[in-house]
Specification:
alpha+beta; 4-stranded mixed β-sheet; 3-stranded antiparallel β-sheet
Length: 285
């Protein structure tokens, strides 16, 4: 939507469901500002008098803040990357075949014919000069008699005497393409807040059985341990696995000051509680 020259301070912004998200505090050529929120002008679908209406996609710019007195659900997109492997043609190498030219002397025998001339004087009996002899009688000159013969000359012709055959076979090999992909995880604090009281009760019961002398901590001190196990229950890396399988990995990443043995029961209870909560909500765990 082209809002050039139409934006002004005080315009109210509404969602597709007529939800009022507030008024424009300031603006420029590319963005409208509502408090600290910056909304691209491309997020607006239409303008009606003093109202600007967001498109369905544009509503995401207000998707993480709820207002007092409103109802309904807010959808937060969860994004992950997928690895897609394609094939393309490329030169993997080459085979070089070198041709050289060799020169050799070839002798080919050939028979040639030629005329041999011999001149003989023969005496004949006197006879009258015939009419055919008179035109050249008594004339001086040279009589030339051609002598013929064969002579040799060479021509060269290129002929194919053989072939070099190069076979190219297509071989198939299996390769594994590895890369890292990113995936968004949504930590729902609302679930933790709902289950927090159960963990606090577990801590109190456990502390009372151990005695105050053995553990002087409060639940505020132990809460991070319960939360760590709780979050691990929702971690896709540990989906479908029991705590006994997950424990070595959690222990390797443990960097707290207290020993693992002291905190293990609290982390285990957080993990089991998270699994129960996920099952109750119908979510994968």
């Amino acid at each position: 939507m082209d809002l050039k020259g139409k934006l002004r301070k005080g315009l109210h912004i509404f969602g597709p469901d007529n939800r009022d998200y507030g008024a424009v505090d300031r603006y420029d050529d590319q963005f409208a500002y509502v408090g600290e929120r910056r909304i691209p002008v491309s997020a607006f679908e239409r303008m009606d008098n003093d109202r600007l209406y967001l498109s369905t996609q544009g509503q995401q710019y207000f998707g993480t803040t709820d207002q007092l007195g409103t109802t309904g659900e807010i959808r937060v997109p969860v994004v992950e990357e997928r690895l897609d492997v394609e094939k393309r043609q490329g030169q993997m190498g080459e085979v070089g075949i070198r041709k050289t030219v060799d020169t050799e002397q070839v002798n080919v025998p050939v028979e040639l014919r030629h005329e041999e001339v011999s001149v003989n004087r023969v005496d004949v009996a006197d006879r009258p000069v015939a009419a055919g002899d008179m035109p050249n009688a008594f004339e001086e000159g040279t009589i030339r008699v051609p002598v013929r013969g064969e002579e040799a000359f060479a021509t060269k012709e290129a002929v194919v005497t053989g072939e070099v055959v190069i076979n190219r076979d297509v071989e198939t090999e299996r390769q594994t393409v590895s890369d890292t992909v990113r995936k968004e995880r949504v930590d729902v604090d609302e679930d933790w807040n709902r289950d927090r009281s159960a963990f606090e009760e577990h801590f109190g019961t456990r502390r009372s059985t151990m005695g105050t002398a053995a553990d002087t901590r409060t639940f505020a001190d132990a809460e991070p341990n319960y939360r760590r196990g709780y979050d691990a229950a929702y971690d896709d890396r540990y989906a479908g696995r029991e705590f006994s399988d997950v424990e070595p990995e959690l222990r390797r990443s443990h960097s707290g000051g207290d020993s693992w043995e002291r905190l293990r029961e609290e982390i285990r209870e957080g993990f089991e509680g998270g699994r129960r909560s996920a099952t109750r909500e119908g979510r994968r765990a």
